[in-house]
TrEMBL record:
Statement: the UniProt record of this protein carries the keyword Transferase: yes
GO cellular component, one term: cytosol
Assembly information from the UniProt record: Homodimer.
Family indicated by similarity: Belongs to the thymidine/pyrimidine-nucleoside phosphorylase family.
NCBIfam families associated with the record: PRK05820.1 (NF004490), PRK06078.1 (NF004747), Y_phosphoryl (TIGR02644)
Organism per entry: Salicibibacter cibarius
GO molecular function: 1,4-alpha-oligoglucan phosphorylase activity; thymidine phosphorylase activity
InterPro entries in UniProt: Glycosyl_Trfase_fam3, Glycosyl_Trfase_fam3_N_dom, Glycosyl_Trfase_fam3_N_dom_sf, Nuc_phospho_transferase, PYNP-like_C_sf, PYNP_C, Pyrmidine_PPas_bac/euk, Pyrmidine_PPase_CS
Lineage, uppermost ranks: Bacteria, Bacillati, Bacillota, Bacilli, Bacillales
Name of the protein described by the UniProt record: Pyrimidine-nucleoside phosphorylase
Enzymatic reactions: thymidine + phosphate = 2-deoxy-alpha-D-ribose 1-phosphate + thymine; uridine + phosphate = alpha-D-ribose 1-phosphate + uracil; 2'-deoxyuridine + phosphate = 2-deoxy-alpha-D-ribose 1-phosphate + uracil
């Protein structure tokens, strides 16, 4: 079929065959289809959508367009977790050692951050010497021996998705739900795990800012995963304010260690345990999510999860004593407090603005070539629902420069203070199996 015929078929709301989708992905990846035709295809999908079979076929074809990790040499059910992105999201560092401590292998490929969201690999590199570029044999051997390894994604992982996403970004088709879901799931399928837990964020700091859209994305990805024989669960969680109290690479690592020590903020602890519980169910270590939560909390309480995290850091080349002495990790030279301009309840916080403020300090990058400063970030002293007096600290800015006037201004604008306490917003909105 000619590309123009395929575009017309989707434009008219017809269903594309698996072969037609595979042929499109292969030809586009190979440079045999011009961008203007691929753009027309993306726009047709934007308006007409795709059914479950089409979305699964697109996902599988994009996963097959580049490197795919074969995890068959790893014993047991491999369970992966993916977050759709947020501010202060450090759940990976908490749930991975919990799950590994229970005997479920965690073989995770992660990426770097771009924009206001932090990247797992960037945060791990807060540990000097931590090795994220692992060859396949080393990666698999680490998981078989220690039940956990986290490595950077291959440069040739899902090249079709990289090419199509760059096109969608400049043709106003980023928000096409089947294309979003296939983009995310193609990387998870290529990463080789048997089961997947999805943390779909919703709120001011998330890609999906409203609940109906988040539900649609979650259900689409669950359908794709199950269609491709990957047991898939989605948890829709709140990102209307940053998760936890810390935003920034080293700051978030320290907070994750706090949680593994049985301390830390309640929200990050509760979400990490819930996600871990789903992974334990999928990995065959818990009969249901409630039992999984009990097990996860036990693994934190008795120190086994922290021991696994300590070994994980050592196994990938860094100094594991830093886990017990996180104060020796790199720290910013200055701490600047942003004060509340009035007394009242914190009624809302724009999470994207907090992430943007951290990036401006150097915690994130605007282009892939930018370097990051692991030490800097934002420490949340007040969160939604809490009362502050005028002059109390809203945040502490951890900075390596003297002038933070612009960043402080963004912080003040991100906070809304009211005479009335806001309604409680759930941490977890829905779970889809």
């Amino acid at each position: 079929m000619r590309m123009v015929d395929l575009i017309a078929k989707k434009r008219d709301g017809e269903t594309l065959s698996t072969k037609q989708i595979e042929d499109f992905v292969q030809a586009y990846t190979a440079g045999q289809i011009p961008d203007y035709q691929a753009s027309a295809f993306a726009m047709a999908v934007y308006f007409q959508g795709m059914d479950e079979q089409e979305s699964a076929a697109l996902t599988k074809a994009m996963a097959a367009s580049g490197d795919q990790l074969d995890l068959s040499r790893i014993a047991g059910t491999k369970v992966d977790k993916h977050s759709t992105g947020g501010v202060g999201d450090k759940t990976t560092f908490i749930l991975s050692p919990i799950v590994a401590a229970a005997g479920v292998p965690v073989a995770k490929l992660s990426g770097r951050g771009l924009g206001h969201t932090g990247g797992t690999i960037d945060k791990l590199e807060a540990f000097p010497g931590f090795e994220t570029e692992l060859d396949e044999d080393t990666f698999i051997n680490l998981v078989n021996k220690h039940k956990i390894a986290i490595a950077g994604q291959s440069g040739n992982l899902t090249p079709a998705d990289k090419k199509l996403y760059a096109l969608r970004d400049v043709t106003a088709t980023v928000n096409a739900m089947p294309l979003i879901a296939s983009s995310i799931m193609s990387k998870k399928i290529a990463a080789g795990s048997d089961a997947i837990v999805l943390d779909v964020k919703v709120g001011s700091g998330a890609f999906m800012t409203n609940l109906p859209a988040a539900k649609e994305l979650a259900q689409t990805m669950v359908n794709i995963g199950n269609e491709l024989d990957r047991r898939t669960v989605a948890v829709i969680s709140d990102m209307d304010q940053p998760l936890g109290r810390m935003v920034g690479n080293t700051l978030e690592v320290k907070e994750a260690i706090d949680v593994l020590q049985g301390k830390g903020p309640e929200d990050i602890h509760r979400l990490s345990v819930r996600l871990a519980a789903h992974m334990l169910v999928l990995g065959g270590k818990a009969k249901d999510v409630e039992t999984g939560e009990v097990l996860a909390n036990d693994l934190i309480r008795d120190g086994r999860a922290l021991n696994v995290f300590r070994d994980f850091i050592a196994n990938q080349g860094a100094d594991s004593s830093l886990v017990d002495h996180p104060e020796r990790l790199v720290q910013a030279s200055n701490t600047v407090t942003v004060e509340a301009p009035a007394s009242g309840y914190i009624s809302s916080i724009d999470a994207t603005d907090i992430g943007r403020a951290a990036s401006m300090l150097g915690a994130g990058r605007m282009t892939k070539e930018d370097s990051i400063d692991h030490a800097v970030g934002v420490e949340m002293k007040a969160k939604v629902g809490e009362w502050v007096e005028k002059g109390d600290a809203l945040v502490d800015l951890h900075a390596n420069r003297d002038d933070v006037t612009e960043v402080a201004s963004i912080i003040k604008e991100s906070y809304q203070i009211s005479d009335h306490a806001p309604e409680n917003r759930p941490l977890i909105f829905q779970e889809m199996l």
